[in-house]
TrEMBL record:
SUPFAM superfamilies: HAD-like, UDP-Glycosyltransferase/glycogen phosphorylase. NCBIfam families: HAD-SF-IIB (TIGR01484), T6PP (TIGR00685). It comes from Saccharomyces pastorianus. This is Threalose-6-phosphate phosphatase. GO terms for biological process: cellular response to heat; fungal-type cell wall organization; trehalose biosynthetic process.
């Protein structure tokens, strides 16, 4: 018998960086500025129980939580009782200048809090405690709720099918800038925490830009980012109303996996990507037999699917069946003796359907007089944060009016059929209500997942003394939960009569019918442990499958560095491809003409004497002259992938292929014509030298199939002529091998900056470094542009040897070879921008045409959300110092 040695060493756990909108704590600051009060927040119970599970019970993962501190409020002591209570101070006016020590102090307090939670909650020591695992995002500024505005006032309504007139006015623009900064602040914090091999998990719609920002930040091809969307995702007809729809989608598709609460939300998302990003998608089934999509966008792939969130069923049952709650259940029962109890608990906002519920209940009492005086509806409505908005005030009025009218119509001096509590209730009261209920009524008109429904079914799965087992649930078909709890009594909340009939039917169910329903429903409740593990293990799988194929992810272009380098450089060279880089790809080549915005930006770039701008394209001279050279003679042009050149501020073209034998054109043309006849919709673009066969307008499958065949046929004889056959974007191009875009780049970089070109002369590698460019931005989208990037990389290697001491402050020579397309595209470029729109935004940034916060990833921020080293950042630092001095003086009695 052989024995195997047991490995007792602790297993290395997979690190997870879990990014949530807000840490699960409410943070209050006492008058002394050092006295922190930390308590658990309410809401988001499902998500926070997933954090708890990873924190306390998971042996497989080491969790690090990154989250905003939330609005920090101040407390003051009551003079008589000495009790601390929230100061009714306007948060908008509190600048919250905290010193580094105070911030560190609070971070430690939060970490200790988490640790003591662990000690209190676990009785096992199977996992090593991770102490430094709470990483607060500090965004201390006046008006702390500013960070919520865009998410809550623009995104949330649209995602819940509420269209507010958006005029992209000043206010909304500022909200957007704050939203961008909020996401940037997370990227920065994650930058401090991230280690190679970590999995990053991002939650919900406050952080839609974060996936792409992280790609931009980390030069780590193996980084795995998962995003879970807790809210509904609307149909594209709604989503496309968002003025920033493209930036939002661009931000999200930086993730490897995007997951939703149900299949219809993921379908809507895919449709938004198809319409707004021109993405394609392949549908299949995942291991749980639900739809998943491989969405190809900007040449890379993202996995999109759904996984409904769950609740911590074990904990709920443990908490709900205690002696204390038994006695609470009994008191409620006694208060409503011989009456059926219907319960509802919702946030009072326009989508939770409280108004619909009350209308349905009113209809029920009208339709079924026999139930009057026999049924009570206990409705708990919790107030939302922004109670002062006109919509909320109107909603409160509507609810009050309905409650009053039902109670005056169907109640009497001793009894009111609707008991409305407009307040937040403690957990034990909530659990008592779930237990005591004969029926739970959920009539939301839109939600992602209604956890009350899941918690109710969980509680009803348990036998207890009060014959509360298995009571039914009425659930709105518009709630995300109806996709999960398929055996609930599903209703349309807008149809009061149908809901009334369902209430009647539900209350009349006998014990056996109820028990049957519950046993089906109970099986349908997902647990939070399962949800967390499934989500993370699929990300782990993705990470390991990507290891196999040695996936290389290209980081997004670091725009703060680019901008800084641009400002400092004196000899700037721009090398731009045209189609797919400066203009989007369109069906008809003749229609791909420069936009007014492109002209403006090129004009501004050209106007700076430090800049030399070249367009290096596959297009012919005629096209480039007509649309670019003719309008901006300062541009240098190169046509047909390097066959022709026109220097900056010069009219004449030089043909670099003059001495080449062109007899191959006849043969290539013949073959291309044969394929054009066989492939309806295809055509040949005949340039001076190159020939291009286009198949964008064919039936896609046929075009692709014939393109492959054509390429093989051309390759069989092109070697004899030393030709290159290139796979372009829905085209096959042929041109002489010895010219390519890389050759042009070589000539332009190894050149005295600003001096005219001698096109027929070779290059000299003996030039002093300070006569050549100190900033080269090279942008291209296509296979042929790789020659440019490769050339720049070669020159960089050469310069490293030749001029090792002449690097700039970033440790390089200012070369930016950037591909236009997704991060997962195969390229030798060092960075990527997603599409021509992002190209223009980036160039706009350089010429001061675009605000720093128009799009994400343009600047670095300080911990208060100011641009690092900017005037406002410095001002804020000074104000903070003055504030701290004043405070300490007021404590010591000294004068400042
Ligand atoms: O080097 P580029 O400036 O990127 O030019 C490459 C080719 O672009 C053009 O074709 C491509 O763009 C068309 C317009 O969007 C599109 O309809 C076509 O399917 C693409 O292949 C151009 O027609 C070619 O001559 C260029 O070589
Ligand atoms: Mg191109």
């Amino acid at each position: 018998m052989t024995t195997t040695a047991q490995d007792n060493s602790p297993k290395k756990r997979q690190r997870i960086i879990n990014c949530v909108t807000q840490l699960p704590y409410k943070i209050q600051l006492g008058e002394s500025n050092d006295d922190w009060k930390i308590s658990a927040t309410t809401g988001n119970s499902a998500l926070y129980s997933s954090l708890e599970y990873l924190q306390f019970d998971s042996t497989e993962y080491e969790q690090h939580v990154v989250g905003w501190t939330g609005e920090i409020t101040r407390t003051e002591r009551n003079l008589f009782t000495r009790e601390a209570k929230e100061k009714p101070q306007d948060l908008d006016d509190d600048p919250l200048y905290l010193t580094k020590e105070q911030i560190n102090g609070l971070t430690t307090t939060l970490q200790d809090h988490m640790k003591s939670d662990k000690e209190a909650k676990t009785d096992t020591t199977q996992t090593a405690p991770v102490t430094n695992n709470v990483h607060p995002v500090w965004l201390l500024r006046k008006n702390q709720s500013r960070w919520r505005n865009y998410a809550e006032k623009v995104i949330w309504p649209t995602f819940h099918y509420i269209l507010n007139p958006s005029n992209e006015g000043e206010q909304e623009k500022n909200w957007w800038y704050d939203y961008v900064k909020f996401n940037e602040a997370y990227a920065q914090k994650i930058g401090e925490v991230y280690r190679k091999g970590d999995i990053i998990w991002i939650h919900d719609y406050y952080l839609l830009l974060l996936p792409q920002l992280l790609r931009m930040k980390f030069n780590d091809e193996s980084i795995i980012i998962g995003y879970f969307h807790h809210a509904p995702w609307p149909s594209n007809e709604y989503f496309r109303c968002l003025p920033r729809r493209k930036q939002i989608l661009d931000g999200l598709v930086g993730a490897n996996r995007i997951c939703f609460q149900n299949e219809s939300f993921s379908r809507h998302f895919v449709s938004s990507c198809k319409r707004s990003l021109d993405a394609t998608a392949k549908k299949s089934k995942n291991s749980s037999n639900s739809d998943q999509y491989q969405v190809s966008v900007y040449g890379g792939d993202v996995l999109v699917d759904s996984l409904p969130i769950g609740v911590n069923t074990t904990q709920i049952l443990k908490d709900a069946f205690t002696k204390d709650i038994d006695s609470k259940v009994l008191s409620i029962k006694q208060a409503y003796q011989n009456k059926k109890i219907i319960i509802g608990r919702d946030r009072l906002d326009s989508v939770r359907g409280v108004v619909q519920k009350l209308r349905a209940f009113e209809t029920f009492l009208a339709m079924y007089p026999e139930w009057r005086d026999q049924v009570v509806l206990i409705q708990v409505s919790s107030p939302i944060a922004n109670r002062n908005s006109p919509q909320t005030i109107r909603l409160e009025q509507q609810v009050n009016e309905l409650v009053n009218s039902i109670n005056s119509e169907y109640g009497n001096l001793n009894f009111s059929p609707v008991q409305h509590y407009y307040m937040r209730i403690p957990k034990d009261v909530y659990l008592s209500l779930l237990r005591v209920a004969d029926l739970c009524l959920i009539t939301s008109v839109r939600d992602g997942m209604n956890t009350t429904a899941l918690e109710y079914v969980t509680v009803k799965s348990h036998m207890s003394n009060f014959s509360c087992y298995g009571n039914p649930l009425i659930l709105s078909e518009f709630s995300g939960s109806s996709n999960v709890l398929k055996d609930a009594i599903v209703v349309n909340p807008w149809d009061s009569v149908a809901v009334a009939k369902s209430i009647n039917m539900a209350l009349k169910l006998d014990k056996e019918e109820k028990s049957n329903l519950e046993s089906k429903l109970w099986k349908e409740v997902p647990t939070i442990q399962d949800w967390t593990n499934k989500f993370l293990s699929s990300l782990k799988e993705q990470a390991s499958s990507d290891d196999d194929v040695e996936r290389k992810m290209t980081p997004a272009l670091n725009r703060p560095v680019l901008l800084e380098n641009y400002k400092q450089a004196k000899r700037r060279l721009f090398l731009f491809d045209y189609d797919g880089t400066l203009t989007p790809i369109v069906k008809d080549p003749a229609a791909a003409i420069p936009s007014a915005r492109l002209y403006t930006i090129l004009q501004k770039l050209c106007a700076d004497p430090h800049n030399q701008i070249w367009i290096i394209s596959g297009r012919d001279q005629k096209f480039l002259n007509k649309w670019l050279g003719g309008k901006l003679p300062q541009l240098g042009l190169s046509a047909e992938h390097g066959c022709f050149m026109k220097d900056v501020s010069c009219q004449d073209w030089v043909n670099l292929t003059e001495k080449v034998d062109m007899s191959w054109q006849v043969r290539v043309n013949e073959v291309m014509e044969e394929f054009t006849t066989r492939t309806p919709g295809s055509f040949i673009e005949r340039k001076k030298v190159a020939l291009t066969w286009h198949y964008r307008r064919t039936v896609p499958e046929l075009g692709e199939f014939h393109a492959k065949e054509l390429k093989e046929k051309l390759l069989s004889f092109t070697d004899d002529f030393d030709l290159e056959v290139m796979d372009g974007k829905a085209n096959i191009e042929v041109r002489p091998r010895f010219v390519n875009k890389g050759e042009i780049v070589k000539r332009l970089v190894w050149h005295q900056h600003g001096k005219p070109q001698d096109m027929l002369k070779g290059i000299s590698e003996k030039l002093p470094k300070d006569e050549m460019p100190d900033f080269v931005l090279c942008l291209g989208d296509d296979f042929t542009d790789e020659d440019m990037f490769r050339q720049l990389n070669t020159i960089e290697t050469c310069w490293k040897e030749k001029y090792p001491d002449q690097k700039n402050q970033w440790g390089n020579y200012g070369f930016y070879p950037v591909t236009v397309g997704s991060a997962s595209k195969k390229t030798v470029a060092k960075a990527h921008l997603t599409d021509p729109q992002q190209v223009l935004e980036t160039l706009g940034l350089l010429v001061g045409d675009v605000s720093l916060f128009q799009s994400a990833g343009t600047v670095d921020l300080d911990s208060r959300g100011h641009v690092k080293n900017s005037e406002s950042s410095l001002k804020s630092k000074l104000a903070s110092k003055a504030y701290v001095m004043k405070r300490s003086a007021s404590y010591t009695g000294a004068k400042v």
